[in-house]
Amino acid sequence: MSKVVWDMDPGIDDALALLLALKSPEIQILGISTVAGNAPVEMTSANARRVLEYMSVTNIPVAMGAAMPLNHPLVDALNHHGSDGLGQCGLPPPRLPLHPAKAWDFIAQLISDAPGEITLVATGPLTNIAYAFKLHPELPRLLARLVLMGGAYGLTPYGKENQTPFAEFNIWQDPEAANIVLNSGADIYAVGLDVSMNPAACLNSQHLEQLKSGHTPAACLAAQLAEYVIERQGHCELHDPLALALLLDASLFDFISVPVEVVTGNGWDRGITYVLPSDSYQLSTASSQLIHVAAAVDAPRFLELFLSRILRTLNNTSCHSEPCALCHSEREKRPKNLAQDRLREESRPFAIAQGGKETTSILEE
Ligand SMILES: [Ca+2]
Question: Assuming Cys at both sites, which of 9, 178, 180, 233 could form a disulfide with 130, CB separation 3.0 to 4.6 Å?
Answer without folding.
Answer: 180
